[in-house]
Design brief:
Keywords: Amino-acid biosynthesis, Cytoplasm, Glutamine amidotransferase, Histidine biosynthesis, Hydrolase, Lyase. The protein is an alpha/beta fold. It is built from six helices and 13 strands.
Length: 229
């Protein structure tokens, strides 16, 4: 069942009276920050849109949005010191969620129109053009989530999410050799060739689709993330 919009930046709260988790939507000039803010607030978070270093570091969770070109997003992120903030948070085990191009920039590199741009290199791999007859991939699609997922907990296997993108990661290259460490959980979707649709890797989670535009399924996913903070 859908819930009405909460006032901008106002959390819906919890029935137990537990203080809402504080989430910063990092504002570096690239991303649907207002729709992300509203979706997170409906999911019960205390949300602020900012690029302030101290607030981004102190928040329970940091959401990194992204729309447009990989190279432009990376420049905007670096200009706002977002690359340093993401790195520092992850070094301390502090949760970060990347969305759309905010997920893509977490990889080693992006290749657009033959131009290679260095990403944050949290994960190995290249963001490359979709290999499909119709590009961009725009609209609703299903995903194949792995066993043990927390991000997709409580969602049906046929749940659909909203995608808008022309580039993706087609090959996952990171595996954990140490049996004491949990390997990343990778969710896939298909548009032409299969591509990475989401990743759960310790404190770092990300989705290629837009949960804030994905109706009840996206709301459940954001609630799941907030519940881990």
């Amino acid at each position: 069942m859908s819930t009405p919009d909460s006032p901008s930046g106002t959390p819906s709260g919890t029935s137990s009276g537990t203080p809402a988790k504080r989430v910063v939507v990092f504002d570096y000039g690239f991303g649907n920050v207002r729709s992300a803010e509203r979706a997170l607030a409906r999911a019960g978070a205390d949300v602020e849109i900012t690029r302030d270093y101290d607030k981004a570091m102190a928040a329970d969770g940091l959401l990194v949005p992204g729309v447009g070109a990989f190279a432009a997003c990376m420049k905007g992120l670096r200009d706002a010191r977002g690359d340093w903030i993401v790195g520092r948070r992850l070094a301390g085990g502090r949760p970060v969620l990347g969305i759309c191009v905010g997920m893509q920039i977490l990889f080693e590199r992006g290749i657009e129109h033959g131009v290679e741009t260095e990403g944050l290199d949290e994960w190995p791999g290249s963001v490359e053009p979709l290999q499909a007859d119709i590009v961009p991939h725009m609209g609703w699609n299903t995903v194949e989530a792995p066993a043990g997922t927390k991000l997709f907990a409580g969602l049906d296997a046929d749940a659909r999410f909203y995608f808008v993108h022309s580039y993706a990661v087609h090959d996952w290259a990171l595996e954990t050799a140490n049996p004491a460490m949990r390997s990343p959980l990778v969710t896939w979707s298909t548009h032409g060739k299969p591509f990475v649709a989401a990743v759960e890797n310790g404190a770092l989670w990300a989705t290629q689709f837009h949960p804030e535009k994905s109706g009840d399924a996206g709301a459940q996913l954001l609630t799941n993330w907030i519940g881990t903070l």
